[in-house]
Amino acid sequence: IKVRKEMHHLALPIARRDAQHNAANRAELLAATGLTKVPCLRMTDANGQVQWMHDSKAIIGYLQSRFASV
Predict the structure, then answer these.
(1) pLDDT tens, 55-69?
(2) Separation in Å, CA 14 to CA 9, 34, 35
(3) Which of 26, 55, 23, 51 minimizes the C-alpha distance to 40?
(4) Which of 1, 26, 39, 61 could form a disulfide with 19 if both were Cys (CB 3.0 to 4.6 A apart)?
(5) Is 2 left (phi over 0), alpha (psi -120 to 50) or beta?
(6) For residues 68 and 10, is the Cβ–Cβ distance under 8 A?
(7) CA-to-CA distance for 26 and 10, rounded, in angstroms?
(8) CA distance 33 to 52
(9) What tens digit of pLDDT does each residue of 30-47 get?
(10) Is this prediction's pTM over 0.70?
(11) What is the enclosing helix (H) or strand (E) of 50?
């Protein structure tokens, strides 16, 4: 919930996927990270490299540092 609140606070159009009730989303998360832990942020850089972040405090810190107004 903390990550969703921060996404809303920063007005970020980040797609949310349900890994609890959607088997395909859960399988993708498990295959990519070896975990089904949420929240999880999937980030794709300009070169197409994908990184995953699981810790809610780390996700919030990343979102704030990357998207918060200065």
Answers:
(1) 999 999 999 999 987
(2) 12, 22, 21
(3) 55
(4) 26
(5) alpha
(6) yes
(7) 26
(8) 7
(9) 999 999 999 999 999 999
(10) yes
(11) strand 50-53
Residue showing tokens 């490299």? 49
User: Which residues are CB-neighbours of 15 under 8 A, at least 6 positions away?
Assistant: none
Give the number of other CB atoms < 10 A from CB of residue 25. Answer: 16
Q: In sequence order, which ranges of the chain are alpha helices (DSSP H)?
A: 2-9, 23-33, 56-67
Query: Alpha-carbon distance 14 to 69, whole Å?
Result: 17
Residue 48: partners with Cβ closer than 8 Å, 6 or more residues away: none
* Amino acid type, 23: A
The residue behind tokens 């969703």 is: 4
